[in-house]
Backbone:
């Protein structure tokens, strides 16, 4: 159905297009001044994804689901301030008009009110999908190059090796989703178990980055982050050991864990944006991992009742 194709594509880009734009910014901010060519390359991807997001937001009005708009995966109450602070601290430009437009989308609640059978819109979405595929291929290649150069000791960056691997995996999921939309016109995506394993690992790694980037004096927060990492590790282990019959129980455990984790990340984003938490975490990185938790929560809540 054209309607599905249009809305699923736009929803995917609203979340992942922004994620890719921010990965580019984090990479850019992490290179030493010596590596001007890497900084320039990362900035190019940042600009390209920003332009893509601009086009997506234009088309999204009235064409994306309210479940997505209200989930907190596109923007949160902190995104605007987090962008302003990050831009001020790094000197990297961020077009916050996009954020304001996205906020307006969520407030308008015009979901599903447009005629999705419009072939012209489907054509525009196809162009956007193809462009997103090209850009994501390029960004993945760049992330792979960064990893290779780090491993060969010819590149230093303030981003952990695991963080670059992590953002490469997220780009891989985005790429697979757009490719599926182009191939089949819809998204069946991963099985519930695959989805939970993917995102539980992502959540565990966020906890590992957070604990490693907090100031050593933030002992309580470091302990809490360590606990979250352990709890997600246990969920991943359980998923490996149990058979498919137990997935319902795992979904409920993942949901409860991620609700607590989302609250921890929200408090962290507020503290980092207001400079009351010390560490090496850019405000936008804190908001970024909060949005990823919100995205995962929506997926968990939308798991069909038959699979719970
Ligand atoms: Fe990410
Ligand atoms: Fe992530």
Residues:
């Amino acid at each position: 159905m054209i309607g599905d194709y249009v809305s699923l594509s736009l929803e995917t880009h609203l979340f992942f297009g922004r994620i890719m734009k921010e990965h580019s910014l984090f990479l850019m901010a992490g290179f030493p001044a010596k590596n001007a060519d890497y900084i320039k390359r990362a900035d190019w991807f940042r600009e390209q994804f920003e332009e893509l997001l601009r086009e997506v937001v234009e088309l999204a009005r009235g064409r994306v689901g309210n479940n997505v708009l209200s989930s907190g995966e596109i923007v949160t109450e902190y995104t605007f301030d987090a962008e302003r602070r990050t831009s001020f601290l790094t000197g990297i430009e961020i077009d916050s008009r996009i954020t304001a437009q996205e906020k307006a989308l969520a407030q308008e609640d015009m979901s599903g009110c447009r005629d999705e059978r419009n072939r012209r819109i489907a054509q525009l979405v196809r162009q956007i999908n193809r462009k997103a595929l090209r850009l994501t291929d390029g960004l993945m290649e760049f992330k792979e190059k960064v990893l290779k150069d780090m491993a060969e000791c010819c590149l230093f960056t303030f981003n952990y090796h695991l963080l670059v691997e992590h953002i490469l995996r997220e780009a891989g999921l985005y790429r697979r989703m757009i490719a599926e939309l182009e191939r089949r016109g819809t998204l069946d995506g991963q099985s519930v178990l695959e989805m939970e394993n993917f995102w539980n690992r992502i959540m565990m790694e966020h906890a590992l980055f957070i604990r490693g980037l907090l100031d050593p004096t933030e002992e309580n927060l470091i302990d809490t982050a360590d606990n979250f990492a352990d709890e997600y590790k246990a969920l991943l282990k359980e998923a490996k050991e149990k058979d498919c019959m137990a997935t319902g129980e795992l979904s409920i455990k993942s949901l409860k864990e991620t609700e607590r984790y989302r609250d921890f990340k929200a408090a962290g984003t507020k503290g980092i944006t207001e400079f009351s938490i010390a560490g090496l975490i850019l405000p936008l990185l804190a908001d970024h991992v909060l949005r990823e938790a919100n995205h995962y929560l929506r997926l968990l809540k939308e798991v069909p009742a038959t699979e719970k």
Notes: The mean pLDDT is 93. The chain has two domains: 1-186, 190-308.
